[in-house]
Amino acid sequence: MTTIADPKAPRPPKPRPARLTTRGNTELYGWVFMRASGVILVVLIFGHLFVNLVAGEGISAIDFGFVAGKWASPFWQIWDLLMLWLAMIHGTNGVRTIINDYAERDGVRLALKASLYLAFVVVVVLGTLVIFTFDPCPAGSPADLLPSFCTTA
Length: 153
Prior knowledge:
This protein is an all-alpha fold.
């Protein structure tokens, strides 16, 4: 005789495939990084805003010459570089978490994360290049196109 299982009985859990490798503490490290980088970013951003808006002549003084003068100092280059890198890593990690939480299909998740990482690399590489290769007075430029603080040689 054949018996039919009780439809109200709980179903046995589906067997999960055995993991070949363990995930380790990657998510824990990401969580700790988000908290630490958030604190550091607050200091960097408020320092940036204070120097640019409060300590100087306010927003009216921020122009090409102001940025050129600031980036002439290695201190401000490193400050802005840290701000760029931390903000991009912090933001990318946050968006990665959102993608993992809300993208249900594996293909969509892979495409979104690939786009995110590509955007991250492009912005970080270009931003770093701008910070370290910025020259407000390039040699051989016409004098009428150079800022007033550049000396023509």
